[in-house]
Amino acid sequence: MKIVVLDGAILNPGDVSWAPLEALGQLEVYDATAPDELATRAQDADVLLTNKTCLHSEDIPSLASVRMVGVLATGYNVVDIDAFAAHGIPVCNVVAYGVDDVAQHAMALLLELCRRTSEHTRSVQAGDWGLSGQWCYWNHTPVCLEGLTMGIIGFGSIGRRVGELAHAFGLSVLAHCRTPKNPPSYSPFAFVSLEQLLTSSDVVALHCPLTPQTDRMINEKNLGRMRKGAILLNTARGQLVDEAAVAHALATGHLSGFGTDVLSVEPPMPDNPLLTAPNTLITPHMSWATVRARQNIINLTAENIRRWQDGHPINVVNPAPSSVEKQ
Question: What is the band of 324 on the pLDDT scale with cuts at 50, 70, 90?
Answer without folding.
Answer: very low
